[in-house]
Amino acid sequence: MSTDDDTHYMMRALALAEPMRGRTAPNPAVGCVIVKKGEVVGEAATAPGGRPHAETQALEKAGKRAKGADIYVSLEPCAHHGVTPPCAEALVKAQPARVIVACRDDDPRTNGQGIEILKKAGIKVTEGVLEAEARAQNATFFARFIRGGP
Predict the structure, then answer these.
(1) Separation of alpha carbons 139 and 65, rounded Å
(2) Which residues touch 59 (CB under 8 Å, ≥6 apart)?
(3) Interatomic CA distance for residues 75 and 135, integer angstroms
C-alpha cells in the first residue's frame, strides 16, 4: 500500500472514533479499519463505556480475512490484561501482514509494548500516520498520563 492509502484508511479509522470521543471513558476513543487487497473487510470503534475495543470488534467482523491484511488503528493496541485480554495479542493471533498505528498510547501499561508484541510476532508495524490528529482526538485521555490528572 502507498503512503496515500495509509493516510486514507487512517482518516477512516479516526472518523470512526470521532463520534465516540467523550463516550468511552476510562478508555480512549479508537477506530480500527482492516483492509485486504484494497477492500475494507472489517471496521469498528471503541464502544460506549470503553468496551469492546475497536480492534476486537473489527477482527470479529473480518474473521479469517484479517490474515495477511493491513490493519489501521488510531492508537497503539493495548498490551495489558485488564477486563479484556490485550488487543495486541488479538492482532497477533489474526496474523495480519502489517499494522499501521497513528500514535503510541501514553498509558504506561502499553506505551510501546503493544507495538513490541506485534514486532516480536513478525508483523510489520508502521507508526505515525496522522499522529497529530490522533493525539488531538484523545487529548483528554493522554492528559491523565502527561499531567497526572484530568
Answers:
(1) 33
(2) 34, 42, 66, 90, 91, 94
(3) 9
Please list the pLDDT of the chain residue by residue as tens digits (150 residues): 688 999 999 999 999 999 999 999 989 999 999 999 999 999 999 999 999 999 999 999 999 999 999 999 999 999 998 888 999 999 999 999 999 999 999 999 899 999 999 999 999 999 999 999 999 999 999 887 776 655
Which residues does 97 contact at the CB level (< 8 Å), separation at least 6?
Answer: 68, 69, 70, 123, 124
User: Which amino acids are annotated catalytic?
Assistant: 55
DSSP letter (8 states) at residue 10: H
* C-alpha to C-alpha distance for 78 and 48, rounded to whole angstroms: 17
Dihedral of the alpha carbons of 32, 33, 36, 41, in degrees to the nearest 10: 100
Residue 10 burial class via C-beta count within 10 angstroms: exposed 0-12, middle 13-18, buried 19 and up: buried
| pTM reported for the whole predicted model | 0.95
Q: Which residues contact 2 (CB under 8 A, 6 or more apart)?
A: none
- H or E stretch at 14: helix 3-17
